[in-house]
């Protein structure tokens, strides 16, 4: 054993023959080619040859090569003359004794002969120069000129087949375009993510846990004749944890996990998407039991139709057809389960959603109060928190926030605390982080004139005053006239979490949004562009009341909303031009009535609004307790403050 070890350590390593060696050989050949073209024989003019060499009788012989070039040989005894110091030298730097010593080009052999004869007409026959005709072929040049195109072609195909280092990982190989770009996470890496890391999705975890049991013990299901779903579709708003839930399934089951996005199937080459889909399923079957996760499946799974045919390509449909074939082509005993996620489940093709393909649909909703508390608990675990941090209060003030939003708030709070050089993250850091996520970064350095500041103060005070005296309006948390993000001022509200919204609640929300514009109209007798965001919200709410929810008086019990998503790409509206006019009239009527009601509330509480605006000008930011001192206590039933924080400009 010892001898073998010594032998292995002393034997020199034999270099491997790689493509780099081919590059080196090619460069050496190119260098030789260049050297062969750059001869060391000096080139002179025909005039110097005639006057300085021929007439001086220093030329021993001349050689005409290929009827184009003349090589001049100087006599041995004349080479040491000063005028021949530039004669051709040997490789070692000495005078080239054998020659040729000089050369020059000629245009025509006949003309050169005439010139030579005329120059030697006075010389004796013995003194005349010997003329030799030769034919030369540069085998190196000819060989390289033939081999160079083939070498370049070979080099190009080698580059395409192997890929270049500068584009590594991008599928540069011409034969790798059809290979799947799925990122495989082995069980050792994926098992670190479990259901404990997924908070706030209790119902979804309970429904999907059945997959884990199947992957761990498929025999139990096969004995009973049960068939596990081939495909599971996760549908929900962005940031609700669809990808994390899929990874947790793979982590709990400890099986290979293939993850990729739907857009990675599409390339500029025809047929690549279908080829990658086939390769993906082949890899998953080879390592079964395994999980395939396709994120944003609506990229390739959109519904096919006549309208979509005008704006979609055959490549996407070919990829979808291949996916459908693969889902039909493997049985439940293969141990391969397909998980897919999308934000737009309504636009998927019906053939993809039928039983036998994506059998089970799991809808993920935005977390409620209890789920937000659990999500905060997960993301606060690695943070160093202060004693004043109240998770219950934070979860109550962030409804409507997704898991990704809450993770962002926790990270922003840590950054704010570090920026202020705190030893722990306090409750104020979390509150500032919530404001930062909702409204954007404060811009205290933004230049605002006193007149603009006064208008902004009355605008925000109008929002707060109207909402304070409306029963169904959301209670205000605080109001600020400090520019933040794109807004010059903002009011934060705590709307109640509702599953349904009544017509009165819609009207009160519209009145609240119109409060700023109405306040400017009353106190400045001229409106400004400050209400553009408010008017956008008002317009959307009013049109949704009429066209979606059927809450108008003239157009009753009708909805033009298409839950399947097919009307998005429709070339015409689902109603006539006459109905469109009635819709516009009804929307304008709703907004006008709401504005008149808003104006009446502000005029009835004009003194309180002025006091509130003045306080805003002085303090810039005021909270609910100060607002309550100025406007008085609300006489409506108490609304539970566990709703999403909203911002109204």
Structure overview:
By secondary structure, the protein is an alpha/beta fold. The chain folds into four domains: 17-165, name from scop, CATH 3.40.1690.20; 183-363, Rossmann fold (3-Layer(aba) Sandwich), CATH 3.40.50; 369-439, Orthogonal Bundle (Helicase, Ruva Protein, domain 3), CATH 1.10.8.60; 450-648, Methane Monooxygenase Hydroxylase, Chain G, domain 1 (Up-down Bundle). The protein has 24 helices and 14 strands. The strands form three sheets. A six-stranded mixed β-sheet has the order 5-7-8-9-6-10. A four-stranded mixed β-sheet has the order 3-2-1-4, with helices on one face. The chain has a four-stranded antiparallel β-sheet with strand order 13-11-12-14. Strand 1 and strand 2 form a beta hairpin. Helix 2 (19-37) packs antiparallel against helix 5, helix 19 crosses helix 23 and helix 21 (532-547) packs across helix 22 (577-604). It is elongated and about 135 Å long. The chain starts with a helix and ends with a strand.
How many structural domains does the protein architecture include? 4
Give average pLDDT, whole number. Answer: 78
Strand content: 5-15%
Radius of gyration: 42 Å
Number of helices: 24
| Shape assignment | elongated
